């Protein structure tokens, strides 16, 4: 089973990549069989602002990177979205990535990790609305990281015991729904 960790920030000095690297390093310690995890960094994908003439729901992909993104998203059986909270919402890079394709998201479960002023709760709330509209499954798999501004001084995100347990519980919920596809 292939699960993508989608890094939902492209800003310089971003915390999302640190959190994603922690998730990517931590998951193997849970000893889950037949699980493949891949980090998908939106900064590396550098998707231009969607300006296609056909809505992605039509499945007509006329932007140069749109078909590549569709092919990539189609491979995954579930997603972990990592997003900061920007101005009471989530990042525009993540919104653009979600809006880039349509059917490739459908019927796949999504988990959410947020951080920021309200531990990412407002960011996660908005992403959940959009993923629901895209037809994704919401297994209520959420992790809100507290005190990120106090703890984000180093190059590596250091999770606490609560976050490790929360990640494990979140992943189990995600995998339960991914296995039913």
Structure, explained:
By secondary structure, the protein is α/β, with parallel strands linked by helices. The protein has one domain: Flavodoxin domain (Rossmann fold, 3-Layer(aba) Sandwich), CATH 3.40.50. Helices cover 38% and strands 16% of the residues. Strands 2-1-3-4-5 form a five-stranded parallel beta sheet, with helices on both faces. The longest helix is centred in the last third of the chain and has 18 residues, at 161-178. The chain is globular. The mean pLDDT is 93.
Topology:
Elements (H helix, E strand, L loop, with lengths): L1 E6 L8 H11 L9 E6 H4 L20 H10 L2 E7 L7 H8 L10 E6 L5 H13 L8 E4 L2 H4 L9 H18 L3
Parallel strand pairs: 1-2, 1-3, 3-4, 4-5
**Domain module tally:** 1
State the end-to-end distance.
Answer: 11 Å
- Provide the CATH topology: Rossmann fold
Radius of gyration, Cα only, in angstroms?
15 Å
In CATH, what is the class?
A: Alpha Beta
Uncertain segments are none
Proper CATH architecture: 3-Layer(aba) Sandwich
Indicate the proportion of strand residues.
15-25%
User: What does the overall shape look like?
Assistant: globular
Tally of strands: 5
Main sheet summary: 5 strands, parallel
Helical proportion, percent range: 25-40%
User: Counting H and I runs of at least 4 residues, what is the number of helices?
Assistant: 7
Q: Which structural class do the helices and strands define?
A: alpha/beta
Strand order of the largest sheet: 2-1-3-4-5
Output the CATH homologous superfamily: Flavodoxin domain
List the secondary-structure elements in sequence, H or E: EHEHHEHEHEHH
Mean of residue pLDDT values: 93
